[in-house]
Amino acid sequence: MTTNQRHREQAVLFVDDEPAVLLGLNRSLHNATFRRHFAGSAFQALELIDSGDIDIVVADEQMPGMSGSDFLAIVRNRQPRIIRIILTGHASLERVIAAINTGQIHRFLTKPIETQQLVEILEEYLTALRLQATKTALNSRTDTVGRWEWDILEDTCSWNESFARIMHTRMDDGNARLPSLFSSVHIEDRAELLSIIHNCRDSGQTREAEHRIVTPDGEERWVIQFMDVFRDGDRVWKLFGMLRDITDQKEKATLLAERMVMLQATLSKTVEALGRVTEIRDPYTAGHQARVAHLAKEMGRRMGLDPRCLEGLETAAKLHDIGKIYVPAEFLTKPGTLREAEMNLMKYHPEIGHQIIQDIPFSMPVANIVLQHHERLNGSGYPGGLKEEEILPEARILAVADVFEAMSSYRPYRPGLGPEAAMRELRKGKGITFDPTAVDTLEGIMEEHPDFLSNIRAMDNSG
């Protein structure tokens, strides 16, 4: 019986050549929990039988053209799982006994029969069918599951065929002792497995273990085990184990992990390549995005960002000026102050950057962080004029790191102001334009490591 058959409504087919009998059965069984089908002849009933939706057939014995027992013999050949019952008032006892003995029918009932008695008999068979279907389904699911049992008091073990197949243990070994039962376990895993088994015994708690086995031809395979202990005073004391081979799952997981590492490495290199595009056009800011990324990541780490958010922050920092690829190169390298029109064009770079990377499937909103890195707490930033909590936490951190690195470093329109001057400027805007926690965190980094930026530049130059 398939899964769909186990969950569908069960059905009983009544076959009788007397319409009045079928009508009476239909009326008396209107409250039954099973579906009811009715056929006025054996030939009509066979069409329903072949549909596969019938669980029990109740047939009259004496019907024109074909007797009930002959009809049920055909049912047995076509659908042997169907329960076959004779319900008649005119049957030959010898013929019915012969039908029972040959397996053509399961039961013989005589008319008249009380409705409650008939329902109880049918429900008994239907329950048995449901139970058998459940067992069949479980067996199909667990035919690859090995089972073993340790009689702790007798210090003997027993196991099923699946265990012998998975663990490469002979079935004719008799009641083996525990160490020999697991002799195929990899020598590096054997002591730990036995320790887990004994811990299950001593603690009375279920335990789980993954370990390797070595097959007779030297192949290593992975097995997972689940164990539980049963105690009944001093009379019964057993430990039960179930195991299955998970080598295929392990190999798939390893392959998936390797692919993920490759994809992550590819994405990381792509991010670095995109970041260098801007710096190639603007040599004065070469390394700016990388230095901001180092600084922002350290700030985020100290501020308690989880690894996923830290990764998103670092990626956004590496790409935060990618939108400047849209800005004419002469604006980027102009030694004097930009005119208003030139500055307005420069202010488009967060939006351009957002457009460039918004379709890359980062695990964090990297494109939005890039879009917001020039927003300010009081709404004076751009491009959206966002305020306070409207700005992503990572964008608030990036804003502080970006301003600090830019002010500390040389630009065509001014010399580098140095870390102290940059830090003073950030303190002025603390809580007004810049996130106060981010500013405090940056100040703590610079107090502990005054040469933080210099060290990053040194690493960039050496690379």
UniProtKB/TrEMBL annotation:
Instruction: Name a biological process GO annotation.
Output: phosphorelay signal transduction system
Instruction: Supply the PROSITE patterns for this chain.
Output: HD_GYP, PAC, RESPONSE_REGULATORY
What is the official name of this protein in its record?
PAS domain S-box-containing protein/HDIG domain-containing protein
Q: Which NCBIfam families match?
A: HDIG
Residues annotated with 4-aspartylphosphate modification: 60
Q: In which organism is this protein found?
A: Desulfomicrobium apsheronum
Q: Does the keyword Magnesium apply?
A: no
Please provide the record's keywords in A-Z order.
Phosphoprotein
Q: Which domain of life is it from?
A: Bacteria
Domain HD-GYP residue range list: 263-458
